[in-house]
């Protein structure tokens, strides 16, 4: 199955997703953990529509710098538009496994829900290690797609949909090996913090409601009939109307230091 294509339509959904209350709270926690200081230079690997870069601009201040690298032109265009008035933010079209920066350029690096899409995690970690200064820190956040729950009245259909949905990623289980891969790349003080998101009511502006749009669009492109994807989505929304909605994800924040 093909990975999710980050075209204009997908990028619009990403923008909507990142503006949701759940994603905003998550972003707040990740940036608390990264603990940027004024004057620092920070790299954002896979900035998407630029929400993190926008927030990090204020944290590093006028003497700091935020640089984002993404391989999707539509994401870069959206991020540049969002941060157009921020003189200390720049975005670059590039590959996580071949970063367009000199060695020892950054004080910190962040990547959120990007590594699960990468075909070569080791190479990307090696590049982050290269461009960080000695003592620099990295934060990587990804989802374990086996460790989530989404209540459905048709479990067999949910399982079919989710099996196809897993194909949108290079590795839906990247958190299971990320700690050891950080160590193998040369990082020390590797730590992990769980981040659980739960929704017990259906809100059209919530993370899971927007995820329904992502999932339905992707699985139909991979051969699931429109009628089945629509029935799946309608069932979830009906559960929300009846007060029986439940959605939960397990995500993980990995941090480490370059010696």
Write the layout of secondary structure elements.
Layout: H1 8-18, H2 21-34, E1 41-45, H3 51-60, E2 65-70, H4 73-82, E3 89-93, E4 106-112, H5 121-131, E5 132-150, H6 155-165, H7 175-184, E6 188-199, H8 207-221, H9 226-242, E7 247-257
Parallel strand pairs: 1-2, 1-4, 2-3, 4-5
Antiparallel strand pairs: 5-7, 6-7
Describe the model.
With 259 residues, this protein is α/β, with parallel strands linked by helices. The protein has a domain at 8-144 and 169-197 and 251-257: Rossmann fold (3-Layer(aba) Sandwich), CATH 3.40.50.150. 42% of the residues lie in helices and 25% in strands. It has nine helices and seven strands, in the order H-H-E-H-E-H-E-E-H-E-H-H-E-H-H-E. It has helices at residues 8-18, 21-34, 51-60, 73-82, 121-131, 155-165, 175-184, 207-221, 226-242, and strands at 41-45, 65-70, 89-93, 106-112, 132-150, 188-199, 247-257. The protein has a seven-stranded mixed beta sheet, with helices on both faces. Strand 2 (65-70), helix 4 (73-82) and strand 3 (89-93) form a beta-alpha-beta unit. It is globular and about 50 Å long. The mean pLDDT is 95.
């Amino acid at each position: 199955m093909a990975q999710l294509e980050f075209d204009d339509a997908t990028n619009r959904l990403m923008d909507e997703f990142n503006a949701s209350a759940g994603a905003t709270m998550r972003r707040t926690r990740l940036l608390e953990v990264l603990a940027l200081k004024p004057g620092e230079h920070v790299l954002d690997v896979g900035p998407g529509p630029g929400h993190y870069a926008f927030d990090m601009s204020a944290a590093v201040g006028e003497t700091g710098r935020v640089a984002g690298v993404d391989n999707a032109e539509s994401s870069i265009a959206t991020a540049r538009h969002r941060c157009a008035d921020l003189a200390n933010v720049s975005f670059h079209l590039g590959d996580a496994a071949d970063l367009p920066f000199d060695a020892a350029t950054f004080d910190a690096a962040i990547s959120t829900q990007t590594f699960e899409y990468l075909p070569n995690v080791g190479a990307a970690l090696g590049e982050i290690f290269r461009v960080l200064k000695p003592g620099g820190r990295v934060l990587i956040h990804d989802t374990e797609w086996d460790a989530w729950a989404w209540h459905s009245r048709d479990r067999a259909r949910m399982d079919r949909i989710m099996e196809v949905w897993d194909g949108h990623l290079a590795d839906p289980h990247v958190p299971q090996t990320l700690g050891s891969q950080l160590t193998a790349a040369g990082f020390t003080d590797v730590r992990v913090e769980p981040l659980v998101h739960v929704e017990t009511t259906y809100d059209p502006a919530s993370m899971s409601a927007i995820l329904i749009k992502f999932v339905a669009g992707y699985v139909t492109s991979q051969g699931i009939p429109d009628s089945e994807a629509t029935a799946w989505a309608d069932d979830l929304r009906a559960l929300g109307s009846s007060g029986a909605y439940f959605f939960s994800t397990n995500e993980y924040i990995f941090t480490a230091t370059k010696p």
